[in-house]
Amino acid sequence: MMLNSIKLKNFKCYEDETFIFENLTVFCGNNSVGKSSAIQALLLAYQNNLSSSLDLNGDLIQLGSYNDVHNQNVDPDSLSIEINYKDGKLEWGYEEDEFDSDKGVEVEEAPLPLLFEPSDLSIRNKLKSFYQDNFSFLSAERLGPRNSYPYSTQRRSPTWLGIHGEFTAQVLSNISVNDTLEEGDPRISEGAERTIADNLYAWMAEISPGIFIKSDAIKHANIAITQFQFDGHTYRATNVGFGLSYVLPVVLALLMAKTDSLVIIENPEAHLHPRGQSYLGRLIALAAQSGVQVIIETHSDHIINGIRLMVRSKDVEQKKIGFYHIYLEESLSVVKPLTLNAQGQFSEWPSSFFDQQAIDMGMLISGTIK
What we know:
With about 375 residues, the protein is α+β, with helices and mostly antiparallel strands. It has helices spanning about 35-45, 65-70, 100-110, 120-135, 170-175, 195-205, 240-255, 275-290, 300-310, 355-365; strands at about 5-10, 15-20, 25-30, 55, 80-85, 90-95, 110-115, 135-140, 150, 210-220, 225-230, 235, 260-265, 295, 320-330, 330-340.
C-alpha cells in the first residue's frame, strides 16, 4: 500500500514536478519556496479519502479556490495531481489547456474531478480502507500546553491524534499493555519493554530527561488531561514548557504507526532543545526502518543529523531515506533530490542547504560580518 510518488502539473509553484517517496522523505529549504506544496497535494487527496472528487477545503487543509492552487506563472489552465502506488495510480484535475468563460467560472470553487484510476476498481477501495486507519498528519501549528484537551468519539480512527495533536491526551489515556511493538522493532528504546507506553516514556525521557507522562479521559465532560511528572512531582501541562506538549503527539504518532502506515509531520522540531531535536530525528529514522512511511518538512539541522546518525550506526538503511532540497532560482522553485551514503554523508551539499552555522562561524573567526 506504500506511496511511491506524486506528480504535480501546474499545481501551486510547480509546472511539472515528480516527487519519489521513500520510507522516509524529508523536505528542506527556505521559507516560501514550495516545500509544503507536495504535502498539501497529498493532504488534499487524503482529506477526501481518495474519493472521485477532491474538495479544496476540508478538515486537514483549506486551499481556497482553483485560482489559488493553479500555477499563476503558466499559460495552460490545466492542473493535475497524480499519486502513484504499487498497485496503480490515481489522478485528479483538468486536462483542458484553455477554459472558456463558463468553464472558468465552473471550476473556480468546484472539487477537482477524478481523471484516472486503475481498471480494477477495488484498488481504490482498498486504498481508501487502508488509509482511513493508517494515516496521521500533524501540522506545524500544534496545540501547546492546556489545562484540558478535547475528547471526541467522531475521530477519523481510534489512533487519530488530530492535525494539531488535540486528541493526544485522549488516545494516550486509552493505550494499554496490549498495545505493543513487534519483537525486534527498531523503535524499541534500549532497556524498554515492547509496549508503546513504555517506549513513549523512554523516548520522551531522551528528549527531556527524567520525565513521566500521565493522561486521563473525563468522558462525561468530553475532555482529557495530560500531566507531567519530574522527580516524583506532578505538574499540569501549563506549568511545563511548550516543547513537551508539541513533541508528545509526534513521538506517539511515530510509535503507534503500523507497517506501511503514512505519517506526515510538519516541523517536528518546534520548541525543542537541540538534544531533543537530534533524538527525535533518530526516532523518525527508526520509524522508517520499521516499515512506516514518514514524510517530514523541517528547518532543523539537528533533526537531519539525528537521521544521519542512524544511518552511520547502521541502524537504518540509507536506501530507505530521501531528501528534497527546494530553493528559488530566478523566482522559480527548483527541486534538488539528495541521498545519503552508508556513512551518513550527503550525495552533495548544495548552497543554502543547512550551511548557516558554517557561514556564521566563518564570520566569527574572521571578524568580517556580512
